[in-house]
Records
---
Amino acid sequence: MGTDSWIPPKVLVAVDLLIFTLRASQLQVLLVERGVEPFRGALALPGGFLNSSEEDLIDAAQRELAEETGLSWDQVRLDQLGVYGAPGRDPRGRVISVAYLAIMPRLPEPVAGTDAADAWWIPTHRALAPETSLAFDHRQILIDGVERARSQLEHSALATAFCGPMFTISELREVYEVVWDIRLDPRNFYRKVQSVPGFIEPAGPSRKTDKGRPARLFRPGPRQALDPPMTRPGERR
Amino acid sequence: MGTDSWIPPKVLVAVDLLIFTLRASQLQVLLVERGVEPFRGALALPGGFLNSSEEDLIDAAQRELAEETGLSWDQVRLDQLGVYGAPGRDPRGRVISVAYLAIMPRLPEPVAGTDAADAWWIPTHRALAPETSLAFDHRQILIDGVERARSQLEHSALATAFCGPMFTISELREVYEVVWDIRLDPRNFYRKVQSVPGFIEPAGPSRKTDKGRPARLFRPGPRQALDPPMTRPGERR
DNA sequence: TGAATAGTGTCTTTCAGACAGTATTAG
DNA sequence: CTAATACTGTCTGAAAGACACTATTCA
């Protein structure tokens, strides 16, 4: 349209990571303190620009994930959350950012990042509190990511990603209770979760201890899409 | 990391549109014939590059939508489907494409595009048939878009977007039947759809004619998220 | 022993699906 | 009238939620 001399603009492309985990019975997100302008000193999602014109987006996300957490490829599933590309979102110029969602199993240690001495787990409710200011449009990305995680618990086996390779049904129930911010009946949950084919599988006759009677251990099953879905109470009606 | 002289790469950004509608009891998608290389002569999704560094992504999508269909802003809802940015997807160089999903009401006329004498409605099953070749990775985008539309029918009021401002419950049912490719019991659907609060509202005492008894007219209700959701049969168990 | 958590059985309510039957139009 | 579609009523089976009960551990 118009003259032949028009040339489409090129823009910078970044990837940002929403890394969620469960700590202290809270949904927490990994945030870094920015060491450079803009937003120096503010909290932000870990991320960065593409390394080269040949780097795939998902590869860039996995590279950032490895840099921040030490976890690499096939240990953590990355889901594309969306693109954030409003013209004014980065004061340095036009940058569009592709956000990825990652879930990490509950870990007792702080972060254990490689070059991430400036990274912390922050409860999402605190990260989203009015007094916390996040760089760029990362507050909106975080809001969208929490909502995505909540939704994914219903229809996918995402919840098991919050647990280790072995877990009890109580631990799995805590994932739902924390992310959805509700209480679930342990007995109904117990049977419900086992009735979904392929969701979880018994993991040997082993057991585990905590406070009362030892619980059976399970591992994630083969199914990614849950059918029938886990129904979120309070959403109905 | 590394030297200070490293400069992140800039890439071209495109928007591509998945425009769906219902025609002849089929889910159809608007495709254009490419007039230039690469993929000259092949079918492709309508789309194009950002106009300028200051253009917002959604604005670019709406601009393309207006160019292809004449429909503008607030007439059609656009949902971001995702980013497609594999390094080799465009032979011209690195291009990442943001795909948007749009639903248009059923229209009797062909296309009525402005500059789109080379645009056609194609049934999705034909566009996805092995003998049809689509440019770039547009086949994958189409696959993802169809799946997104199917999923959205369950949890959102997207189905009403396929209808005009007034519709009968039979027309709404046809949307579900076509997109999900199933048959639904008209009587159960009739009550189910009215029991979801805010989904549809009676639109005056008016009526409409087709073949048998005239049907009441409805209009879209205020709710975007459906609760309880419409359940897709065949998905359960 | 009691406290705490794991796991089972069972009842009730709710809702999706099946389907008979009535209402209103065109021909 | 018949054919066709719109709409209503009712039954049934499956699943969600409530909750009593038993099992197994620790202190």
Note: The domain at 12-152 of chain B is CATH 3.90.79.10 (Nucleoside Triphosphate Pyrophosphohydrolase).
---
Amino acid sequence: MYTYEYPHPAVATDIVIFTLRDQQLKLLLIKRRGKPFKGQWALPGGFVRLEESLETAAKRELEEETGVRDVYLEQLYTYGNLNRDPRERVITIAYFALIASDKIEVRADAEAVDWFTMDEIPDLAFDHQKIVKAAHQRLSAKLDYSTIAFQFMSEKFTLSELQNVYETILQAKVDKRNFRKWVLALERIEETGEIKSAESHRPAKFRP
Amino acid sequence: MYTYEYPHPAVATDIVIFTLRDQQLKLLLIKRRGKPFKGQWALPGGFVRLEESLETAAKRELEEETGVRDVYLEQLYTYGNLNRDPRERVITIAYFALIASDKIEVRADAEAVDWFTMDEIPDLAFDHQKIVKAAHQRLSAKLDYSTIAFQFMSEKFTLSELQNVYETILQAKVDKRNFRKWVLALERIEETGEIKSAESHRPAKFRP
DNA sequence: ACAAAAGTGTTGTATATACACCCATGA
DNA sequence: TCATGGGTGTATATACAACACTTTTGT
């Protein structure tokens, strides 16, 4: 038991984990085993331990669910409305994470874990629907003024693959020549010299 | 006394309150009366009560220090490093607020409260230096892609006054004609018909 | 030889920037 | 009448958007 002179809320982190699979933007949800909202889908997350920072807590949760370290992780927003959680007052610091899908180790205990596209998302526990929406907006906005989408790519990739990522997230076609002009102007990419074979047609170059 | 099965951190809000006075961007600091960092300057803030939301808590603090309601308030970031506070684990949700200086009622008990320009800021308690820096960066960034600076204006103002606000925050001269072109294109401003007298020269028009 | 994706420049359009003079008022 | 800030337009540069054909490879 832990006692305090004044009441303390509980503090948690929840993570919106995005990846790209099958040419679609997907996010990770877990089916709740525990008490409130049991059996319902929710964002991965959990309470912050006293001996870890907020970001450490988020990283721990992330690794527990996906087996991945060293991913792009960004604090999203903090939610603290009164009745978010029926048990007690819980404040959650929401993070969002982007992962290249080939880095993900699917966990063994992962029966109640699945990836959902944005329009497949079921009813979520707590206020997680709101959090997911905010994360998606942030991601969309950042595509325009940052190179955040690179986080979805693996070590080596072709420009066409990168363009596909943009088209998938933006849900729109992008002009190939303008796109390549823009990407190359960033000077964040260099050629590997390697050439992609397979898939029955002309091969490509490149990497970041 | 309040007891919990698991340890809970304390949760606070801190607010970076900006205003413009004497042609300078200033922020509000209070001199700590209480135990940790006693006598040192710090951001206004305090613990979140269980019966209020985070934003409500921030608004309450804001009103306590400035006597102002209905101001621009935006969640900035949440800080939760381990040793931010020597007393116990404290997580703080930082907000930033913008106020038109003529709306501020200086509080009677305000002896240990003062406004500081960005380069006058003394050593601050906790990690408040970091929070102030983040708030200032956010404010600067938002000038470019939003109309956030309007929050510093009172009901009626002239275009020259608004331009002064931009020049003050950006620390740079702005072209008068281009500025007016941009502002009027926003269509967020309308003329009042009123005309400003005093100050010994040609009078101006306008309002938002 | 053909299907499929890779690769490559130019032109027009919109947006942002630079710049100088006359006007109205209070003292 | 003069000092002071208010008010106004145009020309240029820069960034963004539209657009079509040739090349390479695997089957």
Note: The longest helix of chain A spans residues 128-145.
